[in-house]
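Appendix B, example 12.
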Amino acid sequence: MLTNFLLPQNKKKCCIFDFDSTLVSIETLDFLISKSNSGEKKSVENITTLAMSGKITFADSLRMRFSNINLTKKDIEKLKDEICAYITNGFEQGISELKNDFDLYIISGGFIEIIYPVAQRLGISKDHCFANNFIFQGNEIIDFDQKNILAQNGGKPKIVAKILTDKSYEKIFMIGDGYTDLEVAKADHRVIFCGFGAHVAREAVRAEAKYFFYNVESLVEFIVKK
């Protein structure tokens, strides 16, 4: 029947994307902190590098970076307006090639307030975006929601596990630059991890990743053919 033909089809494959240094070229929290407190730029970047290389926990890195926070709603609004300019070259086209056959997700230790404008631009629905969130007091950012699963150690595998309790995918791809992304595949053998090093090629990730890519074109070609 025609009505059946028009019904949305369940997709059998999914791609889960990290955000910072993957879908966009920057580490957004580090970028914000360096804008508000340039003297802490190097130390904040070092903390991020340690976490993304698996040398300290993500939860510890988030708390350590927030000790340098001096941000306002105005800072967030400004980056929300600018963030689409930092979308990694090739992802707008790459996502458009994937969206017909793949469910698309973003799972990030970054912040939803900044991530969502990019998700909108790429055509990824808000209910497929999982991230941390700021806590405001008036105009000031005073903290992050420490009860959020993604603010805790092992957050990404837990979110993926929740997704997979509701969906039965034949292929599941996790794409990211950091050790927290690699942890998703370590926790679930069904997940195909694709290391992404267009912006930062982290040695600890590259050493353990069976598949590693330095540009979007080769990444998308692999996913489509795999």
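The chain is about 45% helix and 20% strand. The longest helix spans residues 41-52.
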